[in-house]
Every structure is written in structure tokens, then in C-alpha cells.
Amino acid sequence: MITGGFTYLAVLIGLGGALKYAQQASSSKFFDYVPPIVLLYFGVMVLSTLGLWTRSEAIDATYANVKGNLLPAMIFLMLLKSDLRQIRKLGRKMLIGFFAASTSIAIGFVVSFSLFYNQLEHHAWKTFAALAGSWMGGTGNMAAIQGALNVPYSNMGYTLLIDSIDYAIWVVLLLALVPLAPLFNKWSRADTRLLDEIGGKLGQETSSDNPINATDLLFLTGLSLLVAAIVQGLAADLPGGAFMTSTTWTVLIVTVLGVLAASTRLGRMSGSAELATVMLYVIVALIASRANFAELAQAPIYIVAGFVILAVHGALMLGAAKLFRLDLFTCGIASLANIGGVASAPILAAAYSQVLVPIGVLMAMLGYIVGTAGGLLVGRVLSLIAS
């Protein structure tokens, strides 16, 4: 049984690295549908359930210090590639599609939680708020909301269970619909002539990115950690409450700083996305290390609630497609840019055409920007329903 903080952290990072390496070395499509980060969460949960480590003072201190300080640093780095000037190139209809997806997902959460909250735990609204962060942005946004709202570790197990099972089925469904795009576009009366032109321009810009170098990696690591330290110090002096805690202030401030910095030279430096990914894996593994399969007795009702969210989202997206004449590519990418993020939106884009992959990436980046604030807003509404 592990009782030392360093050994505990080494095991978590080692498992994350092994899964990421397995994805790179494998030619199987398995990792396209079950991302390594999901496997990491459940793998760490298994180890936690088996009692590989215990809640010693050293492990508790390692968990609190590493997670609390890496989270704002990760958010800052994650947003450096979210240049709003680039996102404008997606075009009006694509942005309409994205925000229609975000709005419909938020409505789906309100409808689903209203139907099931009497059958769920007292603080289940926090579980759904964390999931809303993931389904309106990505796993990093989910981790941000978990920290901002202090979501119980056991509840995060429910969050990841919905996020993996319901999300995986949704990805398969959207991929299966790709051959039906001409029929859908005819039904919605969509004009798709600009897609290849926009995708081609974005593809040229993406291919010109600078290669990763040690100088940029070291500078961005130091800068992100320094930003995290300064923002946490500022947030501690801001007015707080039951909802706006110092952690919430920290998350919101670094989100704004990351978006602003993305339009500067920092956004053009190499390695920020890779560093953010490393930090994200560490944070997700730490969160999973406090969860336990034995606490998932209520999982079926959560999974059903997740499908209700997706059903409402899908129905409203059909209405938006007809109203705004959106094509199936835009609707599908907008949906996965919210629900799946960078892990799956490019995969769906590639199923249509390789030249459209950069659009999937940029749409997912937009999700990173709105995911945390959107999830917190949904959480606020759900807390009012629960009360």
C-alpha cells in the first residue's frame, strides 16, 4: 500500500503516460472512441477501489498542492491557442451552430435535472455542473468546475461515467450519420459552398505552426505557474460566497487572461497545448484517485439522465438546423466541439474531409473559452432547482 506522496504521484503520472503512449503506438481505432483520458480515470478508480494507496497526510498534501496549483496553470495554457481572431474565420453559420449547440445542451441539463433531481443525491447539481463544463467545453473545463464548486470526489465518478458511456454512443451516432449529409442538407436547405474554402485556408495556417522547442516549453511552464500563483493570491482577497469562492474567482480570472494572451506572441509559441495536456492528465488522475467504484450504486439513473440531455440537445439542434439552414457537418461539429472537445471534433471533421479538420479544432477551442463560464451558469440554475 502506497503512503508516500511522491510515489502516489509517480504512479498516477506513469499510468497516464503509458496510456498516451499506447494510443500513439496503436493502429487500432479503439482510442478514437475511448480516449486515453477516460481510460486513465477509470484505471485510477480501479486502483483506488483496490486500495493501492491510503489517505495519508503526505498523500492528502500532495493531492491538494499539485491539483490546486496546476489547475489555473493548465487553464491558462489551454486557452493560448484559442485566438478569437482565428475563431471569427469559422463564419457566421458555424458560430450560430456552435452557440445553438451550447444553448441546447444547457437547456437539456435543466430539463433532465428537473426530471430526476428528486431521485439523486443532495449535491447532485454539482455533478451535473461539472458535466456541463465538460459537455460545453472539455475535460479541462470539467476539472475547473470541479475545483470551483468543490464537487465531491464520489460525484466525479458519476460525471465521468456519464461522460464516457453517453458520450461514446453519441460519437458513434454522429459518425454513422455522415453518409446521410446530402439528404440532411437538402432537408435543411443548407449552402455548403464555403466549407472547402474555409477549411483549406485554416489548414494552411495550422501547418505553419512552429516546432516544439525546449526554450518555449521552459518559458511557458514558468509563466503558467507564475500566473497561477499570482491569480490565486488575488482571488483570495476578492469577495466570496457560497457560489463565488476564491477558486471560482481563480478559474474565471485565468480564463480571461488566457483568452487575452492568445492574441499576443504567447499564442504563437510552441508547446502550450502539449503542456496543457500533460497537466490535464495529472489533474484528472488526481481527481480519479479520490473516487471509488463502490460509490457508484446510483449510476443507472445518472446514465439515463445523460441520455435525456442528449435527446433534448439533438431535438433542439434539428430545429436550429431547419431555422438557420445549417448543414449536417456544422451541426455535428458544433455538437462534438461542445460534448467531445478536441478529442473527437477533429475525428468527425475528418470523416467528412481531411481539409475540414482545422475547423473541428477551432470549434473545440471555442468550447474551451465558454465551457467553464457556461458550466458554472448551468450549475447556478440547477442549484436553484435543487433548493
Task: Report what the structure shows.
- With 387 residues, the protein is an all-alpha fold.
- Helices cover 75% and strands 0% of the residues.
- It has one domain (83-271, 294-386).
Task: Give me the secondary-structure topology.
Blueprint: H1 5-25, H2 30-33, H3 36-49, H4 57-78, H5 84-87, H6 92-116, H7 124-135, H8 139-149, H9 153-176, H10 181-188, H11 194-207, H12 214-235, H13 246-261, H14 272-288, H15 299-324, H16 328-339, H17 345-352, H18 357-386
Q: Which properties best describe this structure?
A:
387 residues
Q: How can the largest sheet be summarized?
A: none
Terminal-residue CA separation = 41 Å
Calculate Rg over CA atoms. 20 Å
The DSSP helix count reads 18
What is the domain total for the residues?
Answer: 1
Using the alpha-carbon principal axes, give the shape. Answer: globular
Summarize the structure.
The protein has 18 helices and no strands.
